[in-house]
Amino acid sequence: MTEQQHDVSSTFKSQDTEEWLDIVFTRPIGYRWALFFNHFDIHPNTVTVLSMILGAAAGVMFYFDADTTQGVLLNLCGVLLLMWANFYDSADGQLARMTGKKTQLGRILDGASSDVWFIPIYFFISLRLFNKPIPLCPDHTWGLWIFVLCAVAGFGAHTYECQLADYYRNIHLYFLKGKAGSEFDHYAQQKQKYEQMPFRGHATEKIFQWFYVNYTHTQELVTPQFQRLWRALKDKYGDDIPQDFRDRFRAASLPLMKWTNILTFNTRAIVLYISCLIDEPWIYPVFELTVLLAIYLHMRHEHESFSRRFADELLA
């Protein structure tokens, strides 16, 4: 392993949770950006905001039809802008771990960045398809139905898929590396922080904290068996969970990490790029509502199943 590879790997959350494409492509480039920003003492939160701007700009580029050379070039600009946003999204986390500048606001902003990217993407895809004929029904145009399709795909599938994938990753990291190596947060704690945070002088942070409270609440609502397991662990061991149990949980959770990777960015981005470049952008929301939703349901079922099994064992 070269010195550069070693330095990059030192900024990984863990080998368990890193995706192959990120390891060989996104992380090394993100690491270069992290070094650049660190040289100028730029805060990780600033990098996150820059990634939001780039991602939102990418959405505008996907409005244009790819049936001309100019249209293809504009869509390619969208691809490059979204890739650039993703490099910055990688760089902000690496920069935070490199410099120790980890903040609660940074965690919240990082979680929100994907929404800031993809809401414009869904919106401009809808505008692009509004007057286009529906495949297999050439006598009918998408009309307002494409906004419905993209809204369901975005707010009804994409959001929940990313939330749960992020939650399962951080649960896995908690059992692998402990609290210090994870961003495994709890609704009750985050709600208490929100209630204790003064509005005056902290307005922006309090608004973001409100969104994060709801984010963690949703994660816990869709994982009842894991919440049951977590309560059983806290009642029996407190904060001192035995290493043997941590190892067994990691072994059960590890096969699901490949699904969390698929549900975060790279897979959906590749489908988005291809569908827009071949001028069939409707493929992307349909893929979201079929393939990715099926993976989400499978991942949740498997995680809840072994969580139930572990909880039954502890409560027996």
How would you describe this protein?
With 316 residues, the chain is mainly α. 76% of the residues lie in helices and 2% in strands. The protein contains 13 helices and 2 strands; from the N terminus they run αααααββαααααααα. Strands 1-2 form a two-stranded antiparallel ribbon. β1 and β2 form a beta hairpin. The longest helix has 33 residues. It is globular. The N terminus is likely disordered.
List the keywords:
two-stranded antiparallel sheet; mainly alpha; globular; disordered N terminus; single chain; about 325 residues; 13 helices
Low-confidence stretches: 1-6
- State the major sheet: 2 strands, antiparallel
Number of helices: 13
Shape, per Cα inertia axes: globular
Task: Please report which band the strand proportion falls in: under 5%, 5-15%, 15-25%, 25-35%, 35-45% or over 45%.
Answer: under 5%
Please identify the structural class as seen in this structure: mainly alpha
Following the backbone from N to C, one meets helices and strands in this order, namely: HHHHHEEHHHHHHHH
Strand order of the largest sheet: 1-2
- Taking all Cα atoms into account, the compactness measure Rg is 21 Å
- Ends distance: 47 Å
Q: How many DSSP E strands?
A: 2
- Mean of the pLDDT scores? 92
> Which bin fits the share of residues in helices?
over 70%
